[in-house]
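Shipment paperwork, digital attachment
Item: protein structure file
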Amino acid sequence: MSATIRSHPSSRSTAVGMAYRGDRCKQLRGGTRWTKVRMRGGKVGWVATRLLHTPDEDVHMNPPGM
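Attachment content:
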């Protein structure tokens, strides 16, 4: 899975990079639809908020009885 990093908070704006599952970033400005992030290499841009998650969301629990 990947996410396009964009120059502005719009799906029509220029793509400035890509982020892949497991890539880490720092949130600079949050929003309900778009979040401004800084990637590890220093690249700054906007990504659709629905594509972001926290490490806590990576915890997988087994259902009871497994």
